[in-house]
Amino acid sequence: MEQLNDDICYHALKARDRRFDGRFYTAVLTTGIFCRPICPAVTPKRVNVQFYPSAEAAIAHGFRPCLRCRPEAAPGSPASVGVHATVARAVRLIEEGALEAGSIADLADRLGVGDRHLRRIFKDHTGVTPQDHAKARRLLRARQLIVDSNLSMTEIADIAGFGSLRRFNDAMKTAYGHAPTAFRRGLKTKLEPKKDTTDPFAAKSDDLILRLRARQPFDAEYLLTFFRARAIPGLEAVGDRTYARGFRIKDAFGLMICRFASDQGGVDVILRGPARDAVLEIGGRVRRLFDLDADVPSITALFADDALLQPLVDKRPGLRVPGCWDRFELAIRAVLGQQVSVAAARTLAGRLVARFGEALPDNLIAGTGVTHLFPEPARMQQQDLISIGLTTRRAQTLADITDLFAHPESDRKSGDDILAEMAATKGIGPWTLNYFGLRGLGDPDAFPAADLGILKASQIGGGPGKPKPLEQHAERWRPWRAYAAQYLWSALEHEQAPKQEKSK
């Protein structure tokens, strides 16, 4: 899709084009309100509007969010989906509260850049300073929690970072012109637990429920099929419309049940246990896990004239690239998936979880089939990894990757740094690096050209059947080769996945 300018934005606004939802926001000078491009309100005159790249930028310039189209519910803005790698990381860290307890200098240090440089590139890409972004994000996520969760106002004020209910009420009245409680009056769909208490995957009376909308079109069926085939016994449970797993954030356990809406509109996240208070972090992880913010029409427009991909796009116009819950977990799964089928990798991973994973409390997971957490790096160090059925060489590779992620500074490393360290590890080849980049880092251009499944699908579709020619052909798919890879894999969804290439 073209780079946005004011003329393109206004044409998209007049057409209420959903492909632009989340890519820009329209501020109306005569009303002081800003909207999403899909807002059902009467289109304002061209001379009366200004366009901003993010909702945070519109708020920072004094505009109030529209109550009809709900800017806080829009898909991720360009800043949060990778227009600039450093800005994307900064946005993610701010979402996780980096500026609640730290300074801009602290944030810049975590990103490995100077604070002046961070301020400059952040404003260039988002239209606001990091501090203004954090303030506006607090308001937007508070309203989202009011409308799209069943949390109490006191809980929302605390989770959104206002410090007190009074500050929360004052800030919301100033920003929206209404008290927070007004937003829950007259809601058409209230998030309430179902009465069927016999279903372990149904929300209970004390569960937290968070609704996450997906950018359309959204192929939930493909995601569920993908995760169902790879679900690790004891760690994950995937049903007809649900994905469940346990998790731990800091020292608190939790159970997460994702229920996919029958209308493909998104996901309702049910959180059970004390770790549910980390709802904002969990919401962000779920959005990345299911790639909810992908601008698929813009991505697939690049494939429109490609004879190999276009039939696959026509079949599944809303296909997403599945992400991961945790980078270390995905790195281990990638190593276990070398040279074996999906089913064999799943079996090995199940043994790993059963042997080294931490058991979850019975009262949290009763009846779900979820029993353990994925083991932390420190828990796997110095363990006999051969005992789960690995060769000596593969066990050593797994141990080396574990040591890499067990390093105290691992969480602060960029994706490029992690890939470089993995590449220097014996037993890690191009397939593993590309697969980890594709799912573990969310790199939209990662492309495992030597994957036997991708090669087979390419050959079936009339494309190259060898890695080098396929890599050359794939140059035309940049920077969305990860989506091209996923489309090729989708062509084999009803077959047993083949073995992957041998790593170096």
TrEMBL record:
Which InterPro entries does the entry link to? Ada-like_dom_sf (IPR035451), Ada_DNA_repair_Zn-bd (IPR004026), AlkA_N (IPR010316), AlkA_N_sf (IPR037046), Alkylbase_DNA_Glycosylase/TA (IPR051912), DNA_glycosylase (IPR011257), HhH-GPD_domain (IPR003265), HhH_base_excis_C (IPR023170)
Print the keywords alphabetically.
Activator, DNA damage, DNA repair, DNA-binding, Metal-binding, Methyltransferase, Transcription, Transcription regulation, Transferase, Zinc
Q: Which cofactor does it need?
A: Zn(2+)
- Write down the top EC class of this protein: hydrolase
Record keyword Metal-binding present: yes
CDD domains, per database record: ENDO3c
Q: Which SUPFAM superfamilies match?
A: Ada DNA repair protein, N-terminal domain (N-Ada 10) (SSF57884), DNA-glycosylase (SSF48150), Homeodomain-like (SSF46689), TATA-box binding protein-like (SSF55945)
The UniProt catalytic activity note for this protein reads: Hydrolysis of alkylated DNA, releasing 3-methyladenine, 3-methylguanine, 7-methylguanine and 7-methyladenine
Name of protein: DNA-3-methyladenine glycosylase II
